[in-house]
Every structure is written in structure tokens, then in C-alpha cells.
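Please fill in the sequence for the structure shown.

STRUCTURE ENCODING:
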């Protein structure tokens, strides 16, 4: 599915080709300078996105999900695991866990990407409310919800989020650690910049 956005004003085509993420614009490969992505295998979302649920989340938060993000969830939002495999993962002689690698408080930080959170999941707004409760110490009403949308969570308290606080249509990326006094940390200016942070366990 092609999408037009302010993400460099690209017309984006986001697809899953035999487990590999492909993002092109007018025939140009936008991932060619991200070699680790070529080793990461994904599963497509196992259901059609519930657009009524998506629109409900958008209306509640006062945001609009970029089409390229919803296309990414369709292409890569699935999860599967067995005794000797897991998706998403890096493929080689054995499956390796996918990591999001970024600088945090003066040191290199690695967060596991075990599954992607789809914004049409039941209870998604409640999950945002709970995250905000741990950040601020009180449960917010729907009209006071923070404009942070979790993409993935690690260890139950560390989130990578779409950050719509500055723009309701073109989010940046934030790391949210609800156990941290300075809990919301900007880590990337765009979703494409987040993809550049993807790597995998090479040990």
C-alpha cells in the first residue's frame, strides 16, 4: 500500500517480502543504508486492522496515525514463536533477538523488540492510561491522556513510543521508563530514524 506523508514528502510503499521489510519511494530503496534490517525477519499482522478501533484511539488522543505507520504494522506486526524460532528475529545459523539501540543518559542502551503493539488491540487506551498513571501518579481522564502511543514494551516498564506531543500527525520517537524520575526521553526525530536503530543480538 502506498502512502504519502511529511516523512520527507515520500510516496512510500511498505511491504513484507518473504519475511523481509521493504520500504521504497519511487523505486528507490529507503533501507539500503541500514544493513542490519536485511537480516531481520518479520511476520505480517495476523488480522485486518480494525479501522474503527484505530479511529477511536485517534479521536480520544486527538492525533492521526501516519499511513506509513499503519502500513508498517500490517507488514511487520505479527508475532510467532516455537521451540526453535521466534518472529521478529534476525536469521542466521540461529534466531537472534531484535534490539533497538540508542544513546540514553550517556550510555548505549539496548531494548528488546519482542513484539509490536497494534493500536487496534482491545484495551489500548487503558494501556496508555496505565502507563501515564505510573508516570504521573494518578489515573488520567480520557481528555487528559498523554499523546504517547506505545510501539513496543520491554520488561513491562520500558516503552518505545510514537510521541505526538509536538505534532498530531507526524510523531517523533520517545523512550519511556516508568521507573525513571525523568521518564520521557526523546530518542529519534522520526519513525525512519527509529528504523536506523534496529539491530540484533550478535553475541
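FILLED IN BY: designer on duty
SEQUENCE:
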Amino acid at each position: 500500500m502506498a502512502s504519502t506523508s511529511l516523512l520527507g514528502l515520500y510516496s512510500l510503499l511498505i511491504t513484507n517480502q518473504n519475511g523481509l521489510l521493504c520500504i521504497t519511494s519511487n523505486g528507490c530503496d529507503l533501507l539500503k543504508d541500514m544493513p542490519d534490517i536485511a537480516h531481520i525477519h518479520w511476520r505480517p499482522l495476523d488480522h485486518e486492522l480494525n479501522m474503527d478501533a484505530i479511529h477511536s484511539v485517534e479521536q480520544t488522543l486527538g492525533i492521526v496515525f501516519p499511513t506509513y505507520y499503519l502500513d508498517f504494522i500490517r507488514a511487520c506486526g505479527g508475532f510467532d514463536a516455537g521451540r526453535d524460532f521466534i518472529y521478529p528475529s534476525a536469521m542466521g545459523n540461529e534466531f537472534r533477538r531484535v534490539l533497538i539501540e540508542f544513546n540514553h543518559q550517556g550510555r548505549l542502551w539496548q531494548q528488546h523488540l519482542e513484539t509490536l503493539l497494534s493500536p487496534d488491540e482491545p484495551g489500548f487506551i487503558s494501556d496508555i492510561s496505565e502507563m501515564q498513571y505510573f508516570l504521573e501518579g494518578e489515573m488520567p481522564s480520557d481528555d487528559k491522556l498523554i499523546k504517547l502511543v506505545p510501539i513496543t514494551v520491554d520488561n513491562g516498564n520500558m516503552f518505545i513510543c510514537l510521541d505526538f506531543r509536538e505534532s498530531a500527525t507526524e510523531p517523533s520517537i520517545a523512550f519511556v521508563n516508568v521507573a525513571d524520575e525523568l521518564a520521557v526521553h526523546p530518542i529519534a526525530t522520526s519513525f525512519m530514524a527509529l528504523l536506523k536503530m534496529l539491530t540484533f543480538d550478535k553475541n
